[in-house]
Amino acid sequence: xxxxxxxxxxxxxxxVKILERYGSTSRxxxxxxxxxxxxSALVRExxxxxxxxxxxxxxEILFIFKLPDGTVRxxxxxxxxxxxxxxxxxxxxxxxIEQTSNLPRYLSxxxxxxxxxxxxxxxxxx
Length: 126
Hints:
Elements: H1 8-13, E1 17-22, E2 26-30, H2 36-46, E3 51-56, E4 61-66, E5 72-76, H3 82-93, H4 97-100, H5 103-107, H6 114-125
Antiparallel strand pairs: 1-2, 3-4, 4-5
């Protein structure tokens, strides 16, 4: 959602694979490490205001928020930033803070993230 300005061609030109579709513009993607900075720049530029994109990797979960005024905020998930991310998700999506506060559970609602979320939290605890 909020990615109307990002076409399939934009993604494939960066080497990004489209794994799944959820409606006309929501997609599950596989972003190669070599394409990550270009993909992040594309999201920052073309994401619609009032939405966010999360990039879930094995070692980092990065949220790119585009606030209603067009301001872009990038926040990597950590213990120190989880409450800020939960509040931003809640305010932009209208979900109750009680739902967004448990970010692993909130993100794992997306079936693509299950293994990556588990790997991320396993690497944090080791």
